[in-house]
Amino acid sequence: MLSLRGKHTFTGLKLLDEAIAAYFTRNTNVDWTDIQKLLEVPSGCQQWLYTTPSNSTCKSPADEGKILKKLSDYIISVKPKYVVSDTALLIVVEKWLTLAVRQYAIGIPVPAANENLTTLTNWLHRVYSDEKSAGILSRLIRRSAPFSQKMQLIAETLELFIAQQSSVPGRPPRRSGDTPVTNSKIEAFKSVAQQKANAEYQNILGPHGAANFFTNVRRYHLDNLLELFALLVKPLYPDEKILRTL
């Protein structure tokens, strides 16, 4: 990888992607720690990658805000027909969720943080609503396929959970169990869980699963968004080893 510089950056990243993919197809135990030990990514390639920054790479909330903006712009630009792997997209979405939640803890101004969170919820809404809002004729003639049913379920559940944490305009969302819920989405989530398309996922959506994130308001708030995400994606994609690390 160190010999791949300049115009060869994209080739290097493709090789890196293939190497990581091959590692996770092994039948033995896998762990991201091994990858960190075995692979070294040149600085030129690092600039191409949108990953969750560490405190050593981000010198200010503004720096992290810029990365959040780049990451969200990229994901929003991805069309369903180009998604050949839900898992690959979900790994990137997990980074977006992480940054969207963390911005409230690192000093990004609330108006800017709320706007970033709205960008996220708008995209989540689009993931599942584009297909549902289209008429029969539009569905027959549309050239691009919708996101998978699993992706739509994840997106709708996350959007409802974030909406339940919303507060009055100009205020940050709920980040404590002591903060009252003013926008309950329990009934809306129950409606999603009862949809015929989601019938096979009742163990995931039931009282001991995702539903608990909506009903147990003393326990769950915005800071638990990543927990809900992991609870959904791991059983929905049980054969994807890389998702087990979330």
Automatic annotation (TrEMBL):
<dbReference type="GO" id="GO:0097352">
    <property type="term" value="P:autophagosome maturation"/>
</dbReference>
<protein>
    <submittedName>
        <fullName>Uncharacterized protein</fullName>
    </submittedName>
</protein>
<dbReference type="InterPro" id="IPR051436">
    <property type="entry name" value="Autophagy-related_EPG5"/>
</dbReference>
<dbReference type="GO" id="GO:0005737">
    <property type="term" value="C:cytoplasm"/>
</dbReference>
